[in-house]
Design a protein that fits this description.
The structure is a single chain. This protein is mostly helical and 173 residues long. It has 2 domains: 93 residues, Fumarate Reductase Iron-sulfur Protein, Chain B, domain 2; 72 residues, no CATH class. Helices cover 64% and strands 0% of the residues. The chain contains 11 helices and no strands. The protein binds iron/sulfur cluster (SF4) (2 copies).
Length: 173
Amino acid sequence: MNSQVMKKVIAEGGKGAAITACMQCGTCSGGCTNIERMDMSPRTLILMVQRGEWERVLKSNTLWMCSSCYICTSRCPRGVRPTDVIEAVKAIAIREGIENDSTRFNQIFVELVEKRGILFEPELMQRYGGLKAMLDQAELGIKLALKGKMSPFPDTIKNPKPFRDALEKAKQQ
Ligand code: SF4
Ligand code: SF4
């Protein structure tokens, strides 16, 4: 086992994740809500971390497909916390400049939320996928707007100061 990798994950918030306790039973993968979209199951990801297969872990789309639902963590019979491990590895991947469609999407999402405090979905689509992506989603957007589920115009939060303060605080942590 590559202790450097383990240290890295633990330093990023995987403390208490009890990675070494994993017995590869697969219960986490069996209950995972997004496993069909992942190229590496949570069980395998834990194994790769144990083995120190760092490159494979950092490049896995599992980091970005995980929705942090915590089902795997709540079901693990050994007290392993795959969700926290994934979050910890994700933080390292971002810091190490791993780039793919998911990191680009996340980056644009964060930038737009920081700008207005609330997301304007058409802008997200335009920045992420260009005009074509925006037009492809136009029908759905119009339906959502007509049902009052989405504003047809960019909006901003009414009292941005608490939001900005919380953002600053989060960035300093
Ligand atoms: S459920 Fe727990 S012990 Fe079983 S494979 Fe997943 S992390 Fe390992
Ligand atoms: S937290 Fe992530 S890995 Fe765990 S079950 Fe949910 S989506 Fe799957």
